[in-house]
Specification:
- The structure holds three protein chains of three kinds.
- By secondary structure, chain A is an alpha/beta fold.
- Chain A is 35% helix and 9% strand.
- Chain A folds into two domains: 134 residues, no CATH class; 124 residues, no CATH class.
- Chain A has a five-stranded mixed β-sheet.
- In chain A, α3 links the parallel β3 and β4.
- In chain A, α6 packs across α8 and α8 crosses α10.
- Chain A is globular, with a radius of gyration of 19 Å.
- In chain B, α4 runs parallel beside α5.
- Chain B is built from six helices and 15 strands.
- Chain B has two domains: 88 residues, Translation factors (Elongation Factor Tu (Ef-tu), domain 3, Beta Barrel); 124 residues, Rossmann fold.
- The radius of gyration of chain B is 18 Å and the shape is globular.
- In chain B, the strands form three sheets. Chain B has a seven-stranded mixed β-sheet, sandwiched between helices. A six-stranded antiparallel barrel of chain B has the order 1-2-5-4-3-6. In chain B, strands 13-14 form a two-stranded antiparallel sheet.
- The chains are: A alpha/beta, B alpha/beta, C alpha+beta.
Chain lengths: 283, 284, 338
């Protein structure tokens, strides 16, 4: 990885010097040991600040929304990041030619305190970027994982236990909306939550409102979820948010063969498409 | 001469829980502005307040909005409300006799004492007349205490001018009181001045000597008229304005209306431009 | 006086008969001040709970009044005051100071908040000296002492076998008198701790006074996502919204935590928003913590608890910012008084 890191710094400096991009979005060291934080490098001499290691926990795609106004961006992308970028292109949030994608094969990132592979990485089956302009280092082997492990666990629960699982999860939500803000798919100009006068979402923090927020988000993301798991990582209350997102992904895959989101930037998506052969369980 | 404006005035009787009140009269001012007179449910004046103070108008069950009390009488307070958003739409749907809630009065007020003996130039546009009106009617009620009063007031069209009848027919009858009204675009129903507020103001040749300017209007009117007043020679300490911010509590606690360490609901809304120059705030 | 550790739960059982007792505890994936019960026991190994005790005095959602029309169509507006006797048992120095900050906000400047005050006046605040510090703790840089919390009613410190308990004021003395059957004479040696993370606060406020338009805000706000994590885990963030819930002809108006990080926080009717972009929002939060609050109430609104440092999903670290402010140059043109 340190080899990739030095290549990354060199390429970032070149891209900035040549004027091909105005900014490189990646990671730099944080204050604490094994901590990184998103980096926005706009001077070639600062490219030395960039790091790429097993503690680069943040995903990069969402920042393109804020930074694209400055000009063409170089963005560090691993599998999860690249799928987010594809999804944002598909959602008309950004254009492919506004981006220069520096592909980085990833072996998963770790929790800086425990040293364990993050849950989001344990369930990852796309460690290599699916789209890039150049790839630094060699592609890594894709692990065979059962992404639906967590879903199967709660599907297997007794009805009461499952209800309790949902409720205890949502009871602990503080509605800081970190999950929404990190999500590459949550790009609505005006989120239903913020339409305060329409009143979709009450401001109360209680089970009903918390459940409404979280489940509406699950439904709204629906088949667009790129399964980066960043919502779950960002959650300050450590809620198992991907369990619900994956349940949706799994159901859509079962019903409509939705497949995995963000593997490309073209085509349609299952919830946005009507097909006469669609399952209609309720008819 | 330095005007003393009080800041941090905590006078509200009802701090967060409104008083049950009712609408006793509604007068339509323009297509999207109406004036509402309010009494308590048992027919009393909800509270006494000073010109420039604000109050929270609660439309049960839709929400609350902060307005300047645009004038008051023996047994009522009056709000002038433009329909611009969710709650104000609901206010415009109210009828005489409807129940509402009122809490306040909040914030500070125009320096009615400090202005005594001085000439006062009011500059405003559109709905900006509402807060100016609270001071102007107060001064007319106490006409002998003040020097010459001038009003420079504009609107996009004739239909955007509030209290036009009062401005044209009542106020000029007071001694030493003059009104100047313009609209932005000429039209058949208007034989008065035509032009934007700032050039109109400049064309009227007011001397800053012994005169205080009171300015209130939307962002562009505010910016341009402020420049004009400065050009004419008004020092910042002789220009008074009243600020607008999103407000929820009214008592300086909920946080959102701050400019630096001041809360507009409690420490404002009335400031001189000299005071604002010391705050992290920009007129632009 | 000493409270033997094996008598702690007895004391808490006793206190629970008369008051709601909140103790630091782990509730599934979350650590917070939770209501003491048969299943919720205090855990003083938690240096700092992930959620502060602020919701006990200032709930995330608090109904203020009920309104509507009665059967005769007469309108009513009925305030809801529901304060109980409450004990916060085991607050760290940072959380005690945060309650001082909230007292400044809710009890001074001419208005005593009618929903905060009854809860505050019925609170018994029992502080617990820190035995260890977390990596993100920096309270002693913010002129606090992890070993003592003078604004509490009772100070406790933890030894091997017992807690030492000391009354800090009359309310504390009265409480200790009532606890006397659980206490014995004696004292323990408390090894004073200090934070590993240090920031230099000298001159920061004075510098910030002139940094409202400094380019630093543009660069520090880049990584911010504008979520409300920092504000909701912060023990001193006290901004609130007021809204309502209606059911047919009656409703309740409540206040709820709000965050200066959210765009709708300052958005006015007609969509004018003085802090529409994330830079002014980030600037507002940090200036409020380190500058504006001190101007208004004479103390910093950051108590150095480190919760935002630990929880920010993008590691936007206030201690790094403080260092950056310390190092920033006040260049011509970038200076505007804050």
């Amino acid at each position: 990885m340190s080899d990739i890191q030095s290549q990354l710094r060199a390429r970032a400096a070149e891209l900035l010097s040549s004027g091909e991009v105005v900014q490189v979005i990646g990671w730099m060291d944080g204050r604490f040991e094994n901590q990184t934080t998103p980096a926005f490098i706009d001077r070639p001499e600062d490219a030395e600040l960039l790091v790429f290691n097993e503690y680069c926990v943040n995903t990069t795609p969402k920042y393109t929304l804020y930074e694209k106004e400055h000009g063409k961006l170089a963005v560090c992308v691993r599998g999860c990041d690249s799928r987010g970028i594809n999804r944002m292109i598909k959602d008309n949030q950004i254009l492919r030619d506004q981006l220069y994608l520096i592909g980085l094969p990833c072996s998963g990132v770790k929790d800086r305190k425990t040293g364990e592979l993050l849950i989001k990485c344990q369930n990852c089956n796309h460690r290599n970027p699916v789209v890039y302009d150049e790839l630094l280092g060699d592609a890594v082997e894709e692990p065979q994982v059962n992404r639906y492990d967590v879903v199967e666990r709660f599907e297997a629960m007794e009805r009461d236990k499952r209800a309790q699982y949902f409720e205890s999860t949502f009871n602990r939500c503080i509605r800081c909306y970190a999950c929404r803000e990190v999500c590459p798919v949550c790009t609505c100009r005006s989120c239903f939550v913020d339409q305060v006068n329409v009143g979709w979402q009450g401001k109360q923090n209680n089970l009903a409102e918390n459940k409404f927020y979280n489940l509406t988000r699950v439904f709204h993301i629906g088949d667009r979820c790129v399964e980066c798991g960043e919502c779950e990582r960002a959650c300050p209350m450590n809620l198992p948010l991907m369990a619900f997102n994956r349940k949706m992904v799994k159901d859509l895959d079962d019903l409509f063969a939705a497949g995995e989101a963000g593997l490309d930037a073209e085509g349609t998506h299952s919830l946005g498409t009507y097909d006469v052969n669609d399952v209609e369980e309720f008819m | 001469m330095t005007l003393e404006i009080e800041h941090g005035c905590a006078r509200a009787k009802e701090q967060l829980v409104p008083l049950a009140c009712k609408v006793v009269s509604i007068t339509s001012q323009t297509s999207d502005v109406k004036a509402y007179r309010i009494q308590t449910a048992d027919g009393q004046k909800p509270f006494d307040c000073e010109p420039g103070q604000t109050a929270m108008f609660s439309v049960i069950p839709y929400g609350e909005c902060m307005f300047c009390v645009s004038s008051q009488g023996e047994d009522y307070i009056e709000f002038t409300v433009k329909k611009v958003g969710y709650v104000t739409e609901r206010i415009h749907a109210l009828n005489v006799g409807d129940s509402i809630g009122i809490r306040g009065p909040y914030g500070n007020w125009f320096p009615t004492e400090g202005l005594k003996g001085k000439d006062v130039l009011f500059v405003g546009g559109g709905i900006g007349l509402a807060p100016l009106r609270s001071l102007l009617t107060y001064m007319l009620d106490n006409r002998d205490d003040y020097g010459r009063i001038d009003l420079v007031y504009s609107g996009s069209t004739r239909d955007d001018l509030l209290f036009l009848d009062e401005i044209q027919n009542d106020w000029p009858k007071y001694p030493n009181t003059f009104v100047n009204v313009s609209i932005y675009q000429a039209s058949d129903d208007w034989d008065g001045a035509v032009g934007f507020t700032a050039p109109f103001l400049e064309s009227l040749d007011f001397s800053p000597e012994g005169r205080i300017a009171v300015l209130c209007g939307g962002p562009s009117l505010f910016r341009t008229c402020l420049e004009s007043l400065e050009k004419i020679g008004f020092p910042p300490e002789d220009i008074i304005t009243t600020l607008e911010m999103k407000m929820k509590c009214g008592i300086g606690k909920c946080g959102r209306c701050n400019i630096g360490s001041l809360y507009i609901c409690l420490d404002g809304p009335v400031f001189t431009m000299a005071e604002l120059a010391d705050l992290p705030w920009s007129a632009h | 006086m000493l409270l033997a550790k094996d008598r702690l739960n007895e004391l808490l059982d006793h206190l629970s008969t008369e008051a709601r007792v909140y103790v630091p505890a782990r509730i599934e994936t979350q650590t917070r001040f939770a209501l003491y019960s048969d299943t919720v026991k205090p855990n003083f190994k938690l240096v700092n709970t992930e959620l502060p005790p602020k919701d006990i005095l200032f709930p995330q959602t608090q109904n203020m009044y009920r309104y509507g029309f009665d059967a005769e169509g007469v309108p009513f507006i009925d305030p809801i005051h529901d304060a109980d006797d409450v004990v916060i048992f085991g607050a760290r120095s940072c959380d005690v100071r945060s309650i001082e900050c909230m007292d400044d906000v809710f009890l001074t400047k001419g208005y005593v908040d009618e929903f905060y005050e009854p809860r505050r006046s019925r609170l018994l605040l029992v502080a617990m000296a820190c035995n260890t510090v977390a990596e993100s703790c920096f309270c002693d840089s913010m002129s606090l002492d992890p070993n003592s919390a003078p604004a509490a009613d009772i100070q406790m410190s933890e030894g091997d076998q017992a807690f030492e308990v000391t009354a800090l004021n009359e309310k504390g003395e009265a409480a200790l008198a009532a606890w006397s059957s659980y206490l014995t004479e004696g004292s323990i040696e408390h090894a004073a701790v200090s934070c590993e993370l240090k920031v230099e606060m000298t001159g920061i406020k004075e510098k910030l006074d002139h940094m409202f338009e400094h380019p630093i805000w543009e660069s520090v706000s880049k990584k911010c996502l504008n979520c409300g994590t920092c504000t909701f885990v912060c023990p001193t963030c006290h901004c609130f919204d007021i809204s309502q819930e209606n059911r047919m002809k009656i409703g309740e108006r409540f206040r709820s935590w709000d965050s200066c990080m959210f765009s709708c926080y300052t958005e006015m009717a007609g969509h004018h928003n003085p802090r529409a972009e994330k830079m002014p929002r980030v600037r507002q939060r940090f200036l409020h913590k380190l500058c504006f609050f001190e101007d208004r109430y004479g103390k910093s609104l950051c108590v150095g608890c480190g919760r935002c440092v630990a929880d920010c999903p993008v590691a936007l670290d206030i201690t790094v910012l403080i260092d950056q402010i310390g190092a920033a140059e006040l260049t011509e043109g970038a200076v505007h008084d804050a």
